[in-house]
Amino acid sequence: MRIGCDLLRDERGGAMVETALALPILLTMIWGIVQFGLAMHANNGIQNALGEGARYATLCVNPTLVNGCRRPTDAQIIARIKERRFSSTYGSFDEPTVTPSPSTATMPYVDLQVVYRMPTSLIFVNGPVMVFTRTKRVYVTGSPTP
Fold this sequence. Notes:
43% of the residues lie in helices and 25% in strands. The protein is α+β, with helices and mostly antiparallel strands. The strands form two sheets. Strands 2, 3, 4 and 5 form a four-stranded antiparallel β-sheet that branches. It has a two-stranded parallel sheet with strand order 1-6. Helix 2 (14-57) runs antiparallel to helix 3.
């Protein structure tokens, strides 16, 4: 009976048990913060790419005296967006899209869209794939360069 009472009062090793219980939760939280940082980095890369694509879409790349200003082609705008996007290699970008306005629009515009897919992982379990979709409408003048 004396040994049982001594074992119940013995506090040696208590810190190790508490650490063993708390450490997986702490590591998961830290990894979640890292995942959030990667997601915000990718979001910044998307915004940068869209801003550069929008700026490039409004440029007059081939001015002529006869036809006036000619805007860049959709392929040129997509190439500019691809050049300027950035993120970690953890996720993947879909092909950027450029959608011109319908011919009935009073002011011509193009809609630029970038999609980034990032798988999430919380060390012990795999989470859902986060999808970041950003769209920007840019009002343009002129027609695309032939």
